[in-house]
Amino acid sequence: MAAAALAKAETPRRLLRRTGRGAAGGNLPSPGSFFSYCSSSRSSTRPSPSAPSPPLSGIIATLFGYRRPSQAAAFFRRVISGRRLGLPARTGLYSAVIHVLVGARLHAQAICLTKELVQEYLEAGRRDQLGRHVGQITFEALQGFDDSDKFSAAAFGVLVIALSQSGLVDEASWVFHQLSDLPAVHACNALLDGLLKAGRIGSLWELHADMLGRGLEPSSVTYNTLINACRWQGDPSRALQLLDEMVGKGLEPTVVTYTTVVCGLCEEGRIPEAMDLFRNMRRSGVLPNVYTYTAMMDGQCKLADTRGALVLYETMLGDGLLPNAVTLSTLANGLCKEGRTREARELLCNMIRRHVEPNAFAYNCLIDGHAKFGGLSEAFKLQSLMARTGAAPDVVTYGTLMKGLCDAGMVQQGRELLQQMRQEGVAPNTIVYNTLIEGYCKLGDTEEAAHVCSEMTGEGVEPNVVTFSLLIDAHCKTGEMDTAMGIFSEMAVRGVVPDVVTYTCLIDGHMKKGNLEEACRLNKEMADAGEAANVFTLCTLIDGLCRQGRSREAMQLFLQNMGVHDGGSGRNPGRAWSVDIHPPCSPNSIAYMALIYGLYRDAQHFKAGRFFALMRESGMVPDVSTYAALMRGQCQFRYLLNAMMLHADMLKAGVMPVDGRGIG
């Protein structure tokens, strides 16, 4: 490590004079011998507590009397472990031996002892409240060492490393800024890495700019740290620039460098660029490792290109690399999302044959795939296999199985699964409870849904906005608006903020009960609360207005959200209600069909036809009921040719009537 650690102007002159000094190397032991000395010293016999301790100066003189630094370190260990020394004496000894080791270039051992010295001060600070941070106190202890032959300014770079590796990045930064000259690149890299691990990305870039201004020559480790910071910032473009800069300076990127950039590109969805870099990596002679391949496979799976992911898998095996649990879990997840559960199951078997223990994530992916594609029995078999192979089913496993059961209408079995969870010692979370509540709500069993909610709160699991929205929606669908509004009020009491789903359920319920004024009040309340409406809110309002014969207001609301104003307004000066959507939402096919059907029921066939034309121009396809309503309207006015054209368009769009129903 370069001896470049000079203190600022306030540092005593003697420190400035000693810069660059250090003990001569001589016949130095290997780094490992220091630890063997430490180990042997711990087994030495302790003197009795009454034995007098020699003065600190005498101990240090003896310490410096050893020709070999490793012997001095072993003596230090015996003294520290065998004598009752006060804090000043102990820290004085630490400072002395740290300077000796740094001067002898035994930096790993020096860092180890510096961390111990920091720990001494941390423990003393907890007891005595020293009033200064540990970085400053340790800095002053090393600075106060008074022996011109043994003093090494590089000890301050070691201190920066020790503090950074201990997670004390603020203290390490303070020490760094006390040094008038830049410490060795290893110390700079340690501080940058410490800031990265602490999530202080902004401070990392500021410090890097300061280091460059003070003459830093970045190493490969420096660039790896900076590229990693780009990854965590979600900025792969900057990472690529740094990679080019690194190569331009003659530094060879390692597999870690390339893998970090590849991961960053894949995480930002830039898979083609990641694949190009992957190929360049191989062409430059840097072989990808299992982490590089796994990142690329994950990227291919995100593009729904499991074929490409499997090709990469075979290439990896051809390179002599064995997959790990994450690699195979990634592939299994991609296959299951495409419904290729059989292939995913074979992959799991291959994993076991290769003596790679599948993790819980791999099993959960397979269970989810089987549950979604109707293979519940296979999903439960996998749960049993999971338990036998030592990967204990977790809350995600049970939540996935619960979802499969409830989606299949097997809610009672879901209730039994909840009991099994508790017996296995797996605590159900909000997601599991909400899944079961949703299952009962879909069956219209609001009483049992409320009972599950009571169990949930009784076990200390607080219902969230999804829980309340499910219960509100269930009661709105059964027309129990008083109960729904009571649950809505309970949300406020519990401090749960309603979202757009909650409001939309209530608006839909009031609209279907003919309570337009209350629906509009809730719509306004939602806007005032800063909750943005969505297209489902728009559909609910249009459908509700059309059901009440207010197709004109529905049409005005629809046009406003298309950015078209026909001179009318959703507001009616003679009424207490008004309808607006904030922010405007582009109508979807459901909004079109609700308006077209409402206009048809109000005998406004011409306007219904106009909105149908707009819908088709937008690339949307109506359902069979909408086509049937329009054809009936044309037939009523004896526009048989128009009706036949509508029928032809319906068949061309692939909309087929079921047993002729909906037509005629």
From TrEMBL:
Pfam families: PPR (PF01535), PPR_1 (PF12854), PPR_2 (PF13041). PPR repeats lie at residues 184-218, 219-253, 254-288, 289-323, 324-358, 359-393, 394-428, 429-463, 464-498, 499-533, 534-565, 588-622, 623-657. Keywords: Repeat. Gene3D superfamilies: Tetratricopeptide repeat domain. The keyword Repeat applies. GO terms for molecular function: mRNA binding. The keyword Repeat applies. It comes from the Eukaryota. NCBIfam families: PPR. PANTHER family: PENTATRICOPEPTIDE REPEAT-CONTAINING PROTEIN 4, MITOCHONDRIAL-RELATED, RESPIRATORY COMPLEX I CHAPERONE (CIA84), PUTATIVE (AFU_ORTHOLOGUE AFUA_2G06020)-RELATED. Belongs to the PPR family. P subfamily. This is Pentatricopeptide repeat-containing protein. It comes from Colocasia esculenta.
